[in-house]
UniProtKB/TrEMBL annotation:
<dbReference type="InterPro" id="IPR025877">
    <property type="entry name" value="MobA-like_NTP_Trfase"/>
</dbReference>
<protein>
    <submittedName>
        <fullName>Nucleotidyltransferase family protein</fullName>
    </submittedName>
</protein>
<keyword id="KW-0808">Transferase</keyword>
<feature type="domain" description="MobA-like NTP transferase">
    <location>
        <begin position="8"/>
        <end position="140"/>
    </location>
</feature>
<dbReference type="GO" id="GO:0016779">
    <property type="term" value="F:nucleotidyltransferase activity"/>
</dbReference>
<dbReference type="Pfam" id="PF12804">
    <property type="entry name" value="NTP_transf_3"/>
</dbReference>
<keyword id="KW-0460">Magnesium</keyword>
<keyword id="KW-0548">Nucleotidyltransferase</keyword>
<dbReference type="InterPro" id="IPR050065">
    <property type="entry name" value="GlmU-like"/>
</dbReference>
<dbReference type="InterPro" id="IPR029044">
    <property type="entry name" value="Nucleotide-diphossugar_trans"/>
</dbReference>
Length: 240
């Protein structure tokens, strides 16, 4: 089975503290890499994947993002305004659920950045998502070939794509690349207010409904100002 999500949730409400001073007067999703805002890189990929509506949540310097996306047609941007509340990555999705509908949707961090391989990774996610077996399908990047990432990884992945969360002191080969497909049913009974999306990941993992797909291409972790330069170099190499 596969799905063709027509809607997406884009998380753009973070404070971008580690990206200072670039984010002192600008939200992190509008930081430019290779001539385009991080948010535009994400929205472009969603548009190419056939998404018609992207719900973008905002909190920090929200008017800049609202103005920046006002003219978007593909996908059309719907703002989920969180300027008066802090909802976290999970609470932000719960607030946006009425806008996302009942079908599986793309979920993408506004500051994630990757260069596709032979085929677009969002199209690969849609083809691989099986709602009968999965509540979440995460795009997973190999830690060894990712740019700007120096952590211990997030998950190990079994041959069928099932994910196993990293235990404390363990090193695992894959890191979540910030793009996924999720079923709205996953959020049934989710807590109100602020909470982290990792709670939903853990719930799906416990029920053996959390799966991963290995990214084809190169993922860039653009978490600090120094990482912007490394990401731009990778883009230049990809088009050379």
């Amino acid at each position: 089975m596969s799905v063709k999500p027509s809607k997406a949730m884009v998380l753009a409400a973070g404070l971008g503290l580690r990206m200072r001073p670039l984010t002192d007067k600008m939200p992190k999703p509008l930081v430019r890499v290779a001539g385009r805002a991080l948010l535009d890189h994400v929205l472009d990929k969603l548009g190419e994947a056939g998404v018609s509506e992207a719900v973008v949540n905002v909190h920090y310097l929200p008017d800049q993002i609202i103005d920046h996306t006002a003219g978007r047609k593909q996908p059309r941007v719907i703002i989920s305004d969180e300027r008066d509340q802090v909802l976290g990555t999970g609470g932000g999705v719960v607030k946006a659920l009425p806008l996302l509908g009942d079908a599986p949707f793309f979920h993408v961090n506004a500051d994630t950045l990757w260069i596709d391989g032979v085929r677009p990774n969002l199209a690969r996610l849609a083809e691989a998502f099986d709602p009968s077996r999965m509540d979440i399908l995460l795009l997973m990047a190999p830690t060894t070939s990712s740019i700007g990432y120096g952590g211990r990884g997030d998950y190990a992945m079994l041959p069928d794509g099932a994910l196993r969360k990293r235990r404390e002191h363990q090193v695992v080969p894959f890191v979540y690349a910030g793009a996924a497909i999720m079923s709205p049913a996953l959020f049934a009974g989710a807590p109100a207010g602020e909470f982290s999306l990792t709670r939903m990941f853990d719930r799906a993992n416990e029920q053996e409904r959390l799966f991963g797909l290995r990214l084809d291409g190169v993922w860039m972790h653009v978490g600090t100002p120094d990482a912007v330069e490394a990401a731009e170099e990778a883009f230049l190499e990809s088009v050379a």
